[in-house]
Structure formats: structure tokens, C-alpha cells
Amino acid sequence: MSTEQHREIKRLAVDKALHWSTSTGDHGSLIGKFRAEVKNHYYLWQRRRCCYCSVELQNHKITFDAEHILDKAEYPEYMFDEGNLAVACKLCNQYKSNKSISSTGLRFSELSKKSHDYSIVHPHLDEWSEHLQFDVIGRIVPVAESTKGKTTVSICGMASLNATRLADQFAIEETAEAETALRVFHEVVDIGRKREFLSLLEEMAQRYGHPGARAVVEALRSDVQHLQLAQPSAPAVAMLPAGNEPHANGHEPPQYEFQSQLLGPNEPPLASSA
Ligand SMILES: [Zn+2]
Question: Residue 239 falls within a domain, yes or no?
Fold first, then answer.
């Protein structure tokens, strides 16, 4: 597309005369060309990686999205601005949706080029590896105490992606159950709740004895221990939600339905994997 066509398309966006998905009318083919150009360009420029979770994108346009860093509905004036565009996997794009990414919580008055104005890792203004990394069990986690890293994990729903990846380590018969337990383990904040889901995962890892599953459980147990040290006032056992009677073994069942039986609070820890 020519520079003039790019100018034209931006002007029309400011006038709200067209939408990102416009495919008919006078400008339909122009918009279609622009969308294709954006996807081709950033697919290569980002080395075939999602700008948020770094997952490898497949070489077919239907498998990933053009990403509007500032939401296109809230900021139509930047809908066709290259500085506000990237490519993202469908999961990150859908989770991020129209959530605010302003670090001040205020509406942007311009398309800021300052990294600190954005609460998440910005595809053009930040170095991914300064804020996010893969840990020893393959999860995407924030680097050290990176606030941007933490917010990106939260806004892009990476607990879900991490859970899917870790569930691969469990027996096929229990993958779906493990995935749910892993996702909730990462989403809940309360240490007591985390312990409940850790117990379920421990049981699954023990039942089939997959070394990968045991390694995952070891890492999660270490996470809980670190959290406990960081919050010494937190109870060392599961907290009971108000209004619920405890189970016979004194351990509150999770709100999610699992077929597995919960481990009692005094069950011995898993033996180290061989
Ligand atoms: Zn992604």
C-alpha cells in the first residue's frame, strides 16, 4: 500500500467512517489489504511469536490476530496506526480484549511512545525478556518483580496457557482435570485455596507416577512455600470459606467438581522423582 493510502485510511478512521472489519463499500478492499499487510509485517517482525506470550504462531492468517494495543473500539483514531498494531495469538487477544492498559488508569490523550505509560509489556516499546520468562517447568512467569510482567500475565490470562502446557505432563486420562486444577491454582490468590488444588495435583501425580507431573507438583509446592514465607501471617492450612461445613477430614473441598478424592492434610509429601 502507498503512503497516501495509509494516510487516507487513518483519516477515515478518525472520522469513524470505517471499521477494522469493513470488507464492503468504497473502502472494503483497501481495509482488506491493510489488514493483510499488518499481519504479514508483524508476523515476520515479531519472528513469528505472539507479542505477549511468545507462543510460536502458525503460518496461516486465520490462526492469529492483528492486535490493537490500545483497544480499537475505545481508540478508533489509532485503529490503523502502525504504532498501535502488532500480532498476537488468539488466546492473548481474547483475554486482553478491551481491558485498560493505561498505567495511570487514565485515558490516553495521545498514542504514547513511553513504555511506562503502559501497564503491560508493549510490543514496540519493551523488551519481552526483561519482563517475562519461561521457568524450569515451562510456565511463562514475570522476571523477578517486574510489575509489567505480572500485569501482562494477568491481563492476557496466561494462567490458562500455563495450565494447558503443564497438564501435558499428567496422564492422558486426567489431563482435563489436571488442567482445571492447574488453572485455578494459578488464578486464586489465597494460599489456602492454592494448597487445596496442590493436594489434588499431588494425588494425580502419585496415581500415575509420571516424572513430569511430579516435577510440576514439586515446583508448585515450592511456589506455595515461597508465598507462605512472603506472607507469614497467612494460615499454613487451607482457609475455610464462611458458611461451609468442613469435610470429615477437616479439608474443604474445592468449588470445582473433581472425581478425585482430596488428600488429607497430614498425608506425607510425594517422594522425590527418580
Ligand atoms: Zn499469546
Answer: yes
pTM of this structure? 0.78
Model confidence over 99-114: pLDDT tens digits? 999 999 999 999 999 9
User: Per-residue pLDDT averaged across 248-255, rounded?
Assistant: 34
State in Å: Cα 225 to ligand 1 middle.
29
Number of H helices, E strands in the chain: 9, 4
CA neighbor of 268 nearest in space, from 220, 226, 196, 206: 206
- Please check whether residue 77 lies inside any domain of the structure: yes
Q: Give distance in angstroms: CA of 93 to centre of ligand 1.
A: 7
Give me ligand 1 centre to Cα 97, in Å: 12
Instruction: Compute, in angstroms, the gap from residue 15 CA to the centroid of ligand 1.
Output: 31
3-state DSSP helix/strand/coil percent for the chain, to nearest 5?
45, 5, 45
The answer to whether 187 and 159 are in contact (CB under 8 A) is: yes
User: Rounded to whole angstroms, how far apart are CA atoms 115 and 221?
Assistant: 35
The last residue of a domain, from among 94, 121, 156: 156
